[in-house]
Amino acid sequence: xxxxxxxxxxxxxxxxxxxxxxxxxxxxxxxxxxxxxxxxxxxxxxxxxxxxxxxxxxxxxxxxxxxxxxxxxxxxxxxxxxxxxxxxxxxxxxxxxxxxxxxxxxxxxxxxxxxxxxxxxxxxxxxxxxxxxxxxxxxxxxxxxxxxxxxxxxxxxxxxxx
Length: 162
Fold this sequence. Notes:
The chain crosses the membrane at residues 38-57, 63-82. The chain has helices at residues 2-56, 63-82, 84-106, 115-157. By secondary structure, it is mainly alpha-helical.
């Protein structure tokens, strides 16, 4: 009886102090990255559609389509540099995976049918999901950093790496 209460307390504590904050974190980040990605996509799409139309009008100052083209390029550069779309999908998939694990656990669906082992298995599964997302994010950032470093060293040395 005491062991069961202890396990129930551990379950509640894990859900309250680890699972729920992680769920909230991934939800906020997915929403943020989605807004950034779709916002930049909207700006670049609308801007790209307007430039040819503006060029049709005689007497249109050249600076206006040039500025719009610059904003379109800047939006594409930002989205491609920071990978907001990729991060949105990664964080959303992680959030959905955490929610699925909780549903399977709460309804005692395979692999959570063995009561004494189900909670430790649930914790391990959730932590693996979180770790995978963290590793994927770190690897993505490391690749971005390496590409930036390679460009920087190539520019500063004129392509010479000796």
